[in-house]
Amino acid sequence: MFRHFPAEFVYQSFALIFSVILVHGAYVTVVRPNAEAHLAEQRALVAKQPDAVAETSIYVILKDYEQEAEIILMLWALAILGYKWADVVRERGLLESDLMPLAEGIKILPEDARRYAKLLEALKPSLRNLLLPRALFQSLLRFETSRSVQDAASATSALCQNEGDRLDSELAQIRYIAWAIPSIGFIGTVRGIGNAMELAHRAVQGDITGVTENLGTAFNSTLVALLLAVVLMFLVHQLQLAQERLALDTETYVNDRLIRHMRTS
User: What is the DSSP string of 198-256?
Assistant: First the structure.
């Protein structure tokens, strides 16, 4: 179950660090300077023409700390999704190969199972630990010990079901990120509204600049968060669908390429 844990943990750790550095660097050098310049330009315009309509800017929408955190989490989640997609692609690549080269009409008896299992044991570890070789190996071992085709099929089905459950459980971290992103957006909303309320007395006196900027923070943080969450959850569901198909297709492969050749006598 944990055969990929060390490598995946290191990958995720470096992906998080890289996301923080990349996004924060972009904010410091591009986003916030451009946002401040745009806001200063709009303040000057409103000072000259009180009835002027302020123009929006993508930099202003993204400038706050909540949006920065949301984008960092989004990039981190995309990196994790990419890692798991690569695993699925590698697993599916084996489904196009012929790991069990059995011609039509060949029968596999219980005493033959060990010989075919050795073909799988000869694979290099990076391939032997994938789902399809493990399912074939488990089916052959169960057939050898129980001398029952039904038991061999049940062993394959159970292994594929367990693998599907394992893959689904490993998506918990990405689901948490998909929940955390809108939560950070709501934090930004509360912060922006709170700051706007503190400046309400200025609005009464006619200076609404501070109130509008803080309300912009409130709404922009939630807007960005919801947009990112929608995209992320779509990608998560696509990955989950691919993983479920992998488990089902692996079981079908074993049934078609191996179990149908098994005979007890």
Answer: HTHHHHHTT--HHHHHHHHHHHHHHHHHHHHHHHHHHHHHHHHHHHHHHHHHHHHHHHH
Of the candidates 177, 259, 263, the one whose C-alpha atom is nearest the C-alpha of residue 225 is: 177
Classify 97 as helix, strand or coil: coil
DSSP state of 30: I
Please answer whether residues 46 and 52 qualify as being in contact, where contact means their C-beta atoms are separated by less than 8 angstroms: yes
Predicted pLDDT at 41: 83
What pLDDT digit, counting tens, does each position of 190-200 carry? 887 877 676 65
Residue pair 3/129 in contact (Cβ under 8 Å)? The answer is yes
Segments making up each domain of the chain, as ranges: 5-261
Distances (CA, A) of 228 to 14, 25, 56, 150: 22, 20, 20, 47
Query: What is the spatial distance between Cα 88 and Cα 137, in angstroms, rounded to a whole number?
Result: 20
Angstrom distance (rounded) from CA 211 to CA 41: 17
Cα distance between residue 59 and residue 34, in whole Å:
6
Contact (CB, 8 A) for 66 and 221: yes
Q: Helical H runs in the chain?
A: 5-26, 32-48, 58-62, 65-95, 113-121, 125-128, 131-146, 149-169, 172-198, 200-204, 209-257
| Banded pLDDT at 99 (limits 50, 70, 90) | confident
